[in-house]
Structures are given as structure tokens and as C-alpha cells.
Amino acid sequence: MRHERQNPNARNFGLKSRDIGKAGLNALKEDIKSFSSISTMHGRWNRFCSWLKAEHQIKDIRDITLDHLQEYSSHLNERCNQQNLSASTAQNYMSAVNRVMEIARGDRTVHVAPVAEGNLPKRSGIATTNKSVTGDVHAKSLNALSPRTSALLELQRQLGLRFEESAKLDAKKALHEALLHRYINIKDGTKGGRLRTVPIQNDSQYQVLRLAATFQNGRSMITPGQSYKQFKQNAYNELKSLDITFHAERHHYAQMRYQTLSNVACPVASGIKHGIEHYRYIASTLNMSLKEAKTLDHHARMQVSQELGHGRIDVTNSYLG
């Protein structure tokens, strides 16, 4: 209870520790009786503390604001989009932060509802809203960004790369591969260092590789004299004032590839519900049987999954619906 603290206005609201992580643990002990629940929520709180220290150098719960929680929610959302975190885990992480903040402060002033306010995905994992960047928004964003960051955005849109993959791309080598083989190998910055190939099938892809090559520094796109972390932070800061995210360009790539491979729009782009309704839509549009439609959808999703660097077809649900 708040009144049990000797000095609730002291560092970390008087939670008997100068360490932000341990202070959160003490807060949970004030309000929760189950040891296992305390342990689980403390682990989730510590993840937030690590992020907070790395991004904002904050070491006192009193300095945590609503903006910090909203930014953390955006960070979790990005990890969900990249398939590094499940929707349920992201919601649990956010809920733990909310709980500690409520106990520590004694109010719900600094609180972000995971889905309604934090825009975290619902637990089904099937996208119901289109996160792809439209052509107009993409064009306006390119004009507002620095040339190097614009090149990164184009790489992600045209090749389906994650941010780290685009930043660490050896564009000159990739251009040579594209001209020679009509595909490029992606390894640097991938999850687990797993190599994958991305097909090069149109002039726009060649153009973006040529553009990226002009900004290449050594073997990557990272600005000379900067670490990857510094480079990423600066690039993300550029996007803060724009109605766009880097990962949304990867959604565009996935949707365009699905349409190319299947000759129909994916569920989230067509507005047709995922599953049987979309199979019927495919069958009707392409004049084929329902079984053929399901097979076509499966093959298109599997190819998209491989090009995005995932090994599971269900991952495409968050991109395609």
C-alpha cells in the first residue's frame, strides 16, 4: 500500500531501492500475493527497464511519463510486426508495466491500454487493418527524408527487407548479383544470420539497388563514423513526424508479391475476410474450384513467407490478413 512507504516522494516513490528494477519488484510485492505472479510480472517489468535505460537513460520511476509508455508500446508493436514477439506476449509486457506504474504511483495517470491505446495487435495474429504504405504517403515521405534514409525506405518497399537488413546491405554486391542472377542474397542483419534470396523481377528493384549503392559506406548503408545503433536511432527520429513506419513498407512488399503470385489481392487489401470467404473470392475471380483456390493461396503465402525470411506460413497472417 502507498501509505506504508516512509517517503513516497523519494526516488522510485520510496519503494526501498534505488534500482528501478528492484523498486518495481517491491511495488508488486505490495499488491500481489502470488509469488509466481510476482516473478513473472517482475521479469516483464525488467524488460521495460532495460529498454528505458537504453533509449532514455531513465533510472527513476518518477521520471517515467505517458509518452514513454506509448513509445514502448510502439516498440513492442514493431517487434510483433517483425514476428519477433507474439501479440499475447506483447500485451502481457504492456500490462505488467501498467500494473507496476499504478502501484508505484497510486493512480492510473501513466497507463496505456495495450490494444485500445497502444495499438498492439489482437491475439489472433490475423491482420484486420491494412498496414501497407500507400503510394502517395510513400512519395511524400521520400521528399521529407534525407536521401540516405529515403534509400533505406525504398529498399524495404521494393525488396521486403527489415530495417537492419537494409542498413547492413552491401548494395554494390547486391546489384551485381541482381544483374547476374536476377536475385540477391540477404544475410547481414537477418534473424539468426539465415541466408535467403529475394527475386529481382522489375526495373524498380534494379533502380533502388543502384540508388542505394551511391550511399554505400564500405560494405553497408550505415553513415560513416556511426555505429548501427546510432544510425538506427537517427533514422527512426527522422520518421517520427511522418505518417509512416519502416516496417509498413515490408507490408507493402508482402501484399504486392502475394498479388503477383496469385493474381488477386490478399484479404487485408481486398477487404475480404481471411479463410473460406477469401478462398471463395479467389475461386470466383479466377474461375477455379475452391480446392484450387486454397492451393493457390497456400503456395503464394509460402513464397511470401520465404522471401520475408520466415519459415512458417502463418507468419503471413499479420502481413496479408
UniProtKB/TrEMBL annotation:
Keywords associated with the record: DNA integration, DNA recombination, DNA-binding
Keyword DNA-binding (UniProt): yes
All copies of domain Core-binding (CB), residue ranges: 26-105
Pfam families attached to this UniProt entry: Integrase_1
Source taxon at top rank: Bacteria
Protein name: Integrase domain-containing protein
